[in-house]
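Dear colleagues,

I hope this message finds you well. In preparation for our joint manuscript, I am sending the RN213 ligase (Drymodes brunneopygia) sequence together with its predicted structure, so that both groups work from identical material. I would be grateful if you could confirm receipt.
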Amino acid sequence: FQYLKRFDQGCDLDTFCYEALLVEGSPAECLQLFLLHCGVMDPSWAELRNFTWFLNIQLRDCEASVFCNPDFVQDTLKGF
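The corresponding structure tokens are as follows:
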């Protein structure tokens, strides 16, 4: 949710890191963003769960990768 919210606001996600204990928005806002970005017109709960699970894994791996660390790559991969 933190990434999707900032993505919709046009924020630079290259320098953003997930904050585990930070609660943002309401459950309704969270569901609305998931519905907007999941890519399925009328998703089931299972499809929403799979979307959030996959997105979470990808973002976690991205944050852990040295190649996505802005301090390491500096501006060589801007927007990657």
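For the figure legend, we might mention the following. Residues 3 and 59 are 9 Å apart (CA to CA). Residues 45-64 form the longest helix (20 residues).

With kind regards,
E.M.
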